[in-house]
Structure prediction request, 428 residues.
Amino acid sequence: MKRPYLSKAMLGMAMTGFLVLAGCETAPETSTVLEEARAAVTQAEADPNVSQYAATELDRARKLLINAEGRAKEKGTRDPQTAHYAYLATQMAHIAGQRAQEQVAIARVKSGEAERQRILLTARESEAQHAQAAAQQARNEAANAQAQVAQANSEAQRLAAALENLQAEQTRRGIVLTLDDVLFDTGRSELKPSAARSIDQIAAFLNENPERRVQVEGFTDSQGADNYNLELSQRRADAVATAIMQRGIDAQRVRALGYGEEFPVASNDNAGSRQMNRRVEIIVSNDEQAIPSRATPGSP
Amino acid sequence: MITLSDIRNAFLCSLAFGIVACASAPVPVDKLAVAKSSVERAEQAQAGQFAQVELNTARAKLAAAQSAADKRDADVAARLADQAEVDAQLAEYTARAKQQQQLVNEMDASLRDLRNETLRNQPTAPQQ
Prediction:
């Protein structure tokens, strides 16, 4: 009985094949997983970042794919080991892709940090340039102011040089000229003829500089009654102001004030210092602005 | 004529073959350990947050590999362990790439802010 025996053996073999497949795993169609692996490796190869940053992983994916292809030729379409290699190749290709992405991102963070430094540096440089320009401008302004002061001083000097017997001093309030008391007799407020030359020159200066104003301030020493001194100083200041106006200077530009014993420039303890206190000061403004008053006794 | 006893004999025979086919190699303890540590590395790389699908695949494969090993299915266990390892690696690198991309996005945003800020603070050009 040859035939039943053979069929029994065949049945046993068929069953073995079925049970092996069922018991171990269901092998997928290798052509499908191979197709996936080829696509994944091709995609990874097409990405220049992968060959730059994940060459090792790409190489491993290629080798796994070659193994899978080779085994597929040898073992047919349902070999679990073929499918296994193909799966590993697919995953390795994906790993290569992710690795490359990570490295690209790392490089971008690094270049971003460099860019950040560059922006900060540029901002600082521009700030420094701006500060430098501002400093230069401040220096220019200071130089201009200095030049203006120098010009004003030279004007004061010019005026002083023109006016004999007068001291001229540049102050915040203007050019201050001091007429001493030899231009008046004691207790009197009429200008002596010797004052005429000084007044002429002050008037000429004011005519040349029509924007400037003049303030005449009279002072006495501390001898005598306060009221008398106040009145005398006012009359002397008025006399000088009148003399200036008589030389063609508009009354709007001339102001006369008597301060009496206030604002002494010396001690009043002896004849010499008392003489210094007896004086008329003529303040010529620096510009068209009114001359600031002496706010409180003692201040300049 | 195939009798019931023939079928039984064939079944026994095939079982014997099957055992020989499946459990011929020793259980791949090393591969399982490697796969396990790969999964752990992926978890440390925050794959649970950034590459959940990939990590879950790796975990499932590792569990399957373990259960195949318990059934002394050495070949299957070895393949599943190898696959779990690459799945875990993919999860790890995917998570790392995503996190790095987040840093790139943050950097881009901060650069944008910085550019706007410096543009706003740019002093007007000094007049020459």
About this structure: Residues 15-25 of chain A have pLDDT under 50 and may be disordered. Residues 80-162 of chain A form the longest helix (83 residues).
